[in-house]
Amino acid sequence: MIFNYFFINNLIKVNKNPVELAKMSQDSTVKIKGFFREKDLFLSDDVNWRGAGVIIDKTDEFYVILTNLHVIGFWQIYDSDLLTPEINEYSLDIQTVNSNDWVTVRKILVNAKLKDFALIYIKTAADYPILPLSRQKPQQGMNVYAMGHPSGLDFTFTSGVISALRETRSDLEVPYQLIQTDTVLNPGNSGGPLLDEKGQLVGIVVSKVSEKCGLNFAIPAQEIIASFEHQEFVEFPLVPAQIGLFVEQLKQA
């Protein structure tokens, strides 16, 4: 995979005002809705969810969207059965700004080490801007901006600062760096962008500590770039019958 962020982010020198950042992030942010049905002997589990994603690249054929592993339903599927989940329906659809249509996902890549990010590939004739990933290390006190869909309120723009940089979180499956921010975030922001004042992607939103005001987290772009460079991605099957075994095997690897 060759991603445009390797050269685009070096071209962005000038800070943008919040109005410009809101427009940039809105045009590059997508809505994601997912569904699966897990078949049990006596009861079937129907699970629906929604989240956000951000367009980070365009190839000859596809747009590439960055989001969370949990926004493609990975952990929901894993938790749906004590044994191997038997998935007989699975769908993941994308909606872009100013569109009433949902686009079917063509391909999904997940992080093989189960870090909470994934790549979604969609095919559309429309033209959308991409947000470059920043190679710069986030700094405490930096102004940051988020775009997402909290509680179903589509394309909500919020701002804050980087409160701290954390090396690990003990409740995550795989330790990695996190950005702590006071930017207002809620369910529906997951997978959405966290931008700096230049409009570069400094991270993607990953979690909120329930009932803790101003205590939110994002995965730094540096972690994501490192996964690209170390080729840590594997393809997630879109055939429902193959999903349960894939999830179980990846979790146990």
Structure description:
The chain is α+β, with helices and mostly antiparallel strands and 253 residues long. It folds into 2 domains: 128 residues, Thrombin, subunit H (Beta Barrel), CATH 2.40.10; 80 residues, Beta Barrel (Thrombin, subunit H), CATH 2.40.10. The protein has 5 helices and 13 strands. The chain has a 6-stranded antiparallel β-barrel. Strand 2 and strand 3 form a beta hairpin. The chain is globular and about 55 Å long. About 2% of the residues have low confidence.
Give the key terms:
Thrombin, subunit H, six-stranded antiparallel barrel, alpha+beta
Task: Report a brief summary of the structure.
The protein is α+β, with helices and mostly antiparallel strands and 253 residues long. It contains five helices and 13 strands.
**Record field, number of beta strands:** 13
State the shape. Answer: globular
Task: Examine the coordinates and then state which fold CATH places here, giving the name of the CATH topology of the largest domain.
Answer: Thrombin, subunit H
Instruction: Estimate what percentage of residues fall within beta strands.
Output: 35-45%
Q: Indicate the percent of residues in helices.
A: 10-25%
Mean pLDDT: 88
Poorly predicted runs of 5 or more residues: 5-10
Q: Give the SSE string.
A: HHEEEHEEEEEEEEEHEH
Number of domains: 2
Q: Count the DSSP helices.
A: 5
